[in-house]
UniProtKB/TrEMBL annotation:
Record organism: Nonomuraea dietziae
Gene Ontology cellular component annotations, sorted alphabetically: cytosol
Family stated for the protein in its record: Belongs to the RutC family.
Protein's name in the database: Enamine deaminase RidA (YjgF/YER057c/UK114 family)
PANTHER family: 2-IMINOBUTANOATE/2-IMINOPROPANOATE DEAMINASE RIDA, PROTEIN HMF1-RELATED
GO molecular function: deaminase activity
InterPro entries per UniProt: RutC-like_sf, YjgF/YER057c/UK114
Gene3D superfamilies registered for this protein in UniProt: RutC-like
Length: 135
């Protein structure tokens, strides 16, 4: 595995992600922002942030599997949420938890969460992109 996740002393420990990833692999994998589309391009969970987060993470999982990788290889996630406010955190975490259970993983690489005004399609509430490292 090319990724080691750590929480260095002096930084807060966050349950849902690690502060730092150390990459030792030689192949970078950049996954385009994934939205709540199923394989046919139909939006999953219109109006439901948790359902859309879940679908985004499942799509990241599928993209990773398509290149012979898994969430263990993810060095960094970036999450974009339309109209973000802190009260949406439980829904975001619910979606991540449901996807993790389906994927059989605990996705905790460093992550950045950004509130945005809009995404590509008005029904999309969240977009997730990933960077992975392979040996």
């Amino acid at each position: 595995m090319a990724i080691t996740l750590v929480n260095p002393s002096g930084l807060p420990e966050i349950d849902v992600y690690r502060q730092v990833s150390i990459a030792t692999g030689s192949k970078l994998v950049f996954i385009a922002g994934q939205v709540a589309w199923d394989a046919e391009g139909v939006t999953v969970g219109a109006g439901d942030l948790a359902a859309q987060v879940e679908q985004c993470y499942l799509n990241i999982g599928a993209a990773l599997a398509g290149v012979g990788a898994s969430f263990d290889d993810v060095a960094k996630l970036t999450v974009y949420v339309v109209g973000w406010t802190p009260d949406k955190m439980p829904l975001l975490l619910e979606g991540v938890t449901r996807a993790a259970a389906k994927l059989g993983v605990t996705p905790v690489p460093p992550a950045t969460l950004l509130g945005v005004a809009a995404l590509d399609v008005p029904d999309h509430l969240v977009e997730v992109e990933a960077t992975a490292i392979l040996d």
